[in-house]
Amino acid sequence: MNHLLVSLVLMHLAAGVFGADDVVRLSVMEGDSVPLHIKPDEIQGAEKVLWTFNGDEKHIAWIDKEKNTSSVPENGREIFRDRLKLNNQTGDLTITNITSQHSGLYQLEIRASSKISYKRFNVTVSAITEPDQRSHWVITGPLLTVALMLLGGFFIIYKRCKNKRSSDEDKETDVPLK
């Protein structure tokens, strides 16, 4: 019985430690809009909601429910100019027209009267690359070949039908009159 109790306590502690460091991983393409969602129960009872980027002390967005205010300050962060949208009701942060400069760790700090909790989002932004010309021809070449073969086949059928018609017309005109 003692071993069972010790095992349960250790499992509970391990779940608490590992659960605290959960990171939501998001992979997106340049130019996309990326919403960083918060579950309603995570923000319930929160007095302040603070967003930071890559461990910087400066907040990129915040909500103060006690003062009924929110902000997305520039704070010298040119990379976020006109790109952050903060939902005052849910605390969700949306990054619009994202670029590779926006790759990194976004941390949400939720302050309630009795506790502080965190949620982390690791955002990876992939660049849009121009398609390789060779890969373009890998698809286009066979399609063009098939299209030309079909066109050639239709042309041959057309010519045969036309020749047959003119041959039939010649036979009709060659009929001797009696």
UniProtKB/TrEMBL annotation:
Residue ranges of domain Immunoglobulin in the record: 23-126
Signal peptide annotation: 1-19
Keyword Ubl conjugation found: no
Keywords: Membrane, Signal, Transmembrane, Transmembrane helix
InterPro entries per UniProt: Ig-like_dom_sf, Ig-like_fold, Ig_sub, Ig_V-set
Statement: the UniProt record of this protein carries the keyword Transmembrane helix: yes
Pfam families: V-set
SMART domains registered for this protein in UniProt: IG (SM00409)
Membrane-spanning parts: 137-158
SUPFAM superfamilies: Immunoglobulin (SSF48726)
Protein's recorded name: Immunoglobulin domain-containing protein
Species of provenance: Triplophysa rosa (Cave loach)
Taxonomic classification: Eukaryota, Metazoa, Chordata, Craniata, Vertebrata
